[in-house]
Write a structure and sequence with these properties.
The protein is α/β, with parallel strands linked by helices.
Length: 375
């Protein structure tokens, strides 16, 4: 008997497979197709001949952990103790999985805000806990009244994603004030803040949970070098948590992966000495603006994109079919792959919206836009 009977092949796998079958341009999965910074690949080439190929410490390569703590201090003004409050992980997904399995118990409730990324629910179910899916408003702002109604004495955790995948929405000051008020009312509730796109924001400045004194003692922060430095295949992330929570998280981590890819940790550690992390924002804002300009004369209506490297678009002026069928037809008939937003909802809510990834080179975006504008 399956422990995850209602979870099947992910929509990302389905659309990517169909994209390959029809030789379509794949704007569905969230991975860049442009080259990694040559300075980073040069570091990797050098390290390949050095003695960095054995197990790293369980918590992470010590110089990297120290530089992450410095990065957090410089970015958010927060002091993190790298020895006791920081853990390098095999990507953000492993960080999320490990956190939930370490801290959520049988029959606990976990609040998940829909539309939500698909890696949140499975670890909750594997803990024999209850994912409680609460929809965001149609403009993707949180409905704090609905969220509070969904919370009970059984609620162990609420998960936020800021900037938000798939919509690119960023939480506001008032959202954080409402969140702080919520946690005051439910003193046993933890916050898991997925901020993997923290350095990919545009006009709207991101407010990080790192900056909220009322949250950090009950918050597990998730970050991703894979997203930040567009090396998604390296699967290098990290999490920050108070020591008492980190102790439990490390217990699970040591039996899940024990330690993370050593050469990649050393490479990122050296790269942090020479890279300006704010350059990432400029890179992706240029791509976002370019893609939006290319599509301005299409029949797609582009939704606001405040962060991430995803652009949500309405196809309501083009078709009345459901978003899954529209995305399949988009691949088969027009050669462009996207992700239907309904698959991010527990109830499959269909607002005739799809998600494009614009983390692509100019040639790819040009050709994709040409095809999309012909519809």
């Amino acid at each position: 008997m399956s422990k995850l009977p209602n979870i099947s092949t992910s929509i990302f796998t389905v659309m990517s497979k169909l994209s390959t079958e029809y030789n379509a341009i794949n704007l569905s999965q969230g991975f860049p197709n442009f080259p990694v910074d040559e300075k980073l690949t040069t570091i990797v080439a050098k390290l390949a001949k050095e003695n960095v190929h054995q197990y790293a410490p369980m918590s992470g390569y010590v110089p990297l952990a120290s530089k992450i703590a410095t990065l957090i201090k410089n970015s958010y003004g927060r002091t993190v103790l790298s020895e006791t409050e920081l853990l390098v992980t095999a990507g953000a997904t492993q960080a999320i999985f490990t956190t939930i399995t370490a801290l959520v118990k049988n029959n606990d409730d976990v609040i998940i805000l829909d539309p939500s990324y698909d890696c949140y629910e499975a670890p909750v179910l594997l803990c024999n806990a209850n994912p409680v899916r609460v929809p965001l408003n149609d403009d993707y702002t949180p409905n704090w009244e609905s969220i509070e109604k969904a919370c009970t004495s059984k609620t162990r955790m609420i998960i936020i994603n800021n900037p938000h995948n798939p919509t690119g929405k960023i939480l506001s000051q008032s959202d954080f004030e409402a969140l702080e008020s919520l946690l005051e009312k439910f003193p046993n509730m933890l916050l898991l803040s997925d901020e993997v796109y923290e350095y990919i924001t545009f006009e709207q400045k991101q407010i990080s949970a790192h900056t909220r004194e009322n949250l950090i003692n009950r918050c597990i922060m998730i970050s991703s070098f894979g997203k930040t430095f567009h090396v998604t295949g390296w699967k290098i992330g990290y999490l920050i948590a108070p020591q008492q929570l980190m102790t439990e998280i490390k217990k699970a981590h040591q039996f899940l992966v024990f330690s993370v890819n050593s050469i990649c940790q050393v490479a990122i550690s050296e790269y942090l000495d020479i890279v300006t992390i704010t350059e990432i924002k400029k890179l992706y804002q240029e791509k976002r603006d370019y893609f939006r300009e290319l599509l301005k004369n299409s029949r797609f209506e582009l939704m606001p994109c405040e962060g991430t490297y995803f652009q949500v678009a309405s196809y309501a002026a083009i078709s009345n079919e459901n978003d899954i069928n529209f995305c399949k037809r988009l691949i088969i008939e027009h050669g462009v792959a996207a992700i239907p937003i309904s698959t991010f909802y527990a109830d499959g809510k269909d607002l005739k919206l799809i998600r494009f990834c614009f983390a692509k080179d100019k040639t790819t975006l040009d050709e994709a836009a040409k095809r999309l504008c012909s519809i």
